[in-house]
Amino acid sequence: MMATAGKRTNWFAIWVSVAVVAVVVVAGVAVVLINNAASNPDPGPEPEAAIVNTETGAISVGDGPDVVATYIDFMCPICNQFEGIYAETLNDLVADGSITLEYHPVAILDNQSQGTQFSTRAANALYCVATTTPEAVTPFVSAMYANQPSEGTTGLSDDEIISIATDAGAADAASCITDRTYEGFVGERTQAMPTTADGGRGTPTVTFNGERIDLTGDPQVDIIDRLS
């Protein structure tokens, strides 16, 4: 799948705004992590499921030989743009057995949801879906982006997230979402996510077989041409 010229132009415009996101991340992530640590001295349970690697936080879809890992924050508008440009290619490659797609839900933009910790709650919800209804992971991710709130708002309520999970086929995740069962785990994995050369954290961060990709907006160049 080749990205259109329009998409490449749009991607360039998107990445112009990365500097703004990076400033938010560098300034805010330390505060978020300190607050999470203070409120959650015990990180709590880890998500136990065949598709979840508790050492890395990866939620794996597919079983292909090449691994594409995506670190995403459901409040991040650039992550939504990434979803719009790359999801079809990634899902097709999962379906034909070419790749394993890893979702790493993180929370670096909690300070953009007026104190509701939407990023943490949304990341927790993805782990809830992964542990209760693994086949609903990709539909849930797609639906969360389709209903993405704007930065600076309160984000989606727990009930709204539960409704999205239910529509994706994961009604059993409701109590886990409400209880924020994996909130502490999300905080740990956010702190452990890959950083840039200057120590900052940003989303989306994408790796191919462990190597960070400098995204161009062209799935052919960034993903397909790297396949074994």
Describe this structure in words.
The protein contains 9 helices and 6 strands; from the N terminus they run ααβββαβαααααββα. The protein is α+β, with helices and mostly antiparallel strands. It has a 6-stranded mixed sheet with strand order 1-2-4-3-5-6, with helices on both faces. Strand 5 (205-208) and strand 6 form a beta hairpin. It is globular and about 40 Å long.
Concise account of the structure shown:
Helices cover 47% and strands 11% of the residues. It has 228 residues and is an alpha+beta fold.
List its traits.
9 helices, single chain, disordered N terminus, 11% strand, 228 residues
**Distance N terminus to C terminus?**
17 Å
- Count of DSSP strands: 6
Shape: globular
Written as H for each helix and E for each strand, in order along the chain, the element string is HHEEEHEHHHHHEEH
Q: Give the neighbour order of strands across the main sheet.
A: 1-2-4-3-5-6
Going by helix content, strand content and strand pairing, the class is: alpha+beta
Helix content: 40-55%
In angstroms, what is the radius of gyration? 16 Å
Largest sheet: 6 strands, mixed
